[in-house]
Design goal:
alpha+beta, 5-stranded mixed sheet, 18 strands
Length: 477
């Protein structure tokens, strides 16, 4: 292990600080012996830069590279197993530590094995360690490049769109310097991860970089009534998919305080999580395939090629976090898609149940498929809600109005059932209404918040009371 001077300029450091922490950048306000965890994490991932003298919020507080500090860092890096070479420089007020991607993975320090995930250093469990290095891919697809692709093929407009959404100020930074700072380019080439986000014509260079959006009439893949093929960068694919789902899912409105809030039948944050997961985890090396978003009368499916990484099974989901494409994932993190959504499998399940829906299901073979059941209460097809809802979209009305009427009908039915039997249980209401227990729970909570009903006594042994003398006005008795 050696400590060497590493050429990094003040301007490069300033750019890294403006971009913030990520897969390959870590800020530390001051030296601490625990930076060996970050050193190991960088060596186990794509390498990276650790800046001493910078707070987490990007404020520079300063650090000096004394002989004593050099000796401490040298001791930490030497005691990693295997030992790790580090480039070390005083750059203005900041000490920059450059860690290259390791060639003898996995690396460990005194407290264990670590890796980078969403701008943080995390300790790996035994299963994560086993799975992370199971494929032994010497050069992943996102690290490769396309023959003939040059920096002139990069779209400045897409860089502007990316930096605007990521809230990064790059000023007059040259395109190659910006891409290198994100580790999606080196001195002579743009990596596939950079092409997937920033190429002028992504599809022209990577035909598999596409997403198909499909809406079917019915519950099988027979009658397509809407289709879009998105052959553009990954941010565009994500945004187009969200818009497509918002177009085809039912929505109701609730007034909360002075604001109106649109509530989709499947929580939109759950579907965003599924979309970003599909784009981060798909196997881009498989040609002739694409991510698919499929909307049926009873469900939504998000499908990506490649299945789960080797060694990871469906039962591991929610307990083990492994990302096939670390650079692509880092770019989505910088766009705040992972941080803002960032729910994970377990929270996706919790959000579905809280909305009165079934938990999502996951299946994996050559493809990974996430399935989300639509709300039977908000469906507009006869046979799901029976005669309560028209089979066709109402003339002169909107889906939203129809959904609001459907919600009113459910409220009225609950009030009638409570008046008939104040001791009725949630399970009995679910049977009478033909909806899930979680759906009943949602409606009861909403009705209590609106002072339509109240609970008297404990859950067991208590009873319901209708708080108003009359049920809300609406259709059908």
């Amino acid at each position: 292990m050696t400590l060497t001077e590493h050429p990094i300029t003040v301007e490069q450091v300033k750019l890294l600080i403006r971009e913030g922490e990520g897969l390959t950048v870590e800020f530390k306000e001051h030296y601490t012996p625990r930076i060996d965890e970050d050193i190991v994490a960088f060596a186990n991932a794509k390498g990276g830069t650790l800046l001493l003298g910078v707070r987490n919020d990007g404020i520079v507080v300063g650090e000096r590279l004394t002989n004593d500090l050099k000796a401490k860092i040298n001791s930490l890096a030497r005691n990693c197993k295997p030992s790790i070479a580090i480039g070390l420089s005083q750059v203005g007020e900041v000490v920059a530590m450059i860690v290259a991607e390791g060639t003898e993975k996995p690396y460990s320090c005194a407290s264990g094995y670590y890796r980078r995930l969403d701008g943080t250093t995390q300790k790996m469990s035994h299963d994560e360690l086993r799975i992370m290095f199971a494929e032994n891919e010497p050069l992943p697809f996102e690290e490769k490049s396309v023959k003939g692709f040059t920096f002139d093929d990069v779209s400045k407009a897409k860089i502007r769109a990316f930096t605007r959404e990521a809230a990064i100020r790059i000023g007059s930074t040259a395109v190659p310097d910006f891409l290198r700072s994100l580790k999606v380019a080196d001195e002579v080439r743009v990596k596939n991860a950079g092409i997937l986000f920033f190429a002028k014509d992504v599809y022209d260079h990577l035909h598999q970089a596409q997403m198909t959006l499909l809406a079917f009439k019915g519950t099988d893949r027979v009658h397509i009534y809407d289709r879009r093929d998105v052959r553009d960068d990954l941010l565009t694919q994500f945004n187009e998919a969200v818009g497509f789902l918002q177009k085809h899912l039912n929505v109701r409105s609730e007034i909360r305080g002075v604001n109106r809030q649109d509530i989709y039948e499947i929580p939109i944050e759950v579907l965003r999580e599924a979309l970003v997961n599909a784009l981060m985890h798909r196997d881009y090396s498989i040609t002739g395939t694409q991510v698919s978003v499929e909307v049926y009368d009873d469900r939504v499916e998000v499908v990506n090629p490649g299945g789960l990484p080797k060694g990871l099974s469906v039962r591991d989901l929610g307990t083990v976090s492994i990302r096939r494409n670390e650079l692509i994932s880092d770019l989505f993190f910088r766009l705040h898609k992972v941080e803002r959504i960032g729910m994970g499998i377990q929270k996706m399940k919790e959000a579905m149940v809280a909305a009165g829906l079934r938990e999502p299901t996951f299946a994996s073979d050559a493809f990974f498929r996430a399935t989300f059941q639509r709300s039977p209460e908000l469906a507009l097809k006869e046979g799901i809600l029976g005669a309560e809802v028209s089979e066709k979209k109402p003339k002169g009305g909107t889906i939203q109005k129809t959904i609001q009427k459907t919600t009113q009908k459910t409220t009225q039915r609950i009030i009638r059932l409570i008046r008939h039997n104040p001791q009725i249980t949630r399970q009995e209401l679910a049977i009478e209404l033909g909806i899930s227990d979680s759906g009943v729970k949602y409606h009861l909570k909403k009705m209590k918040a609106e002072d339509l009903i109240r609970r008297v006594g404990p859950d067991k042994g208590g009873h319901w009371e209708v708080a108003l003398q009359q049920a809300p006005h609406g259709h059908g008795k």
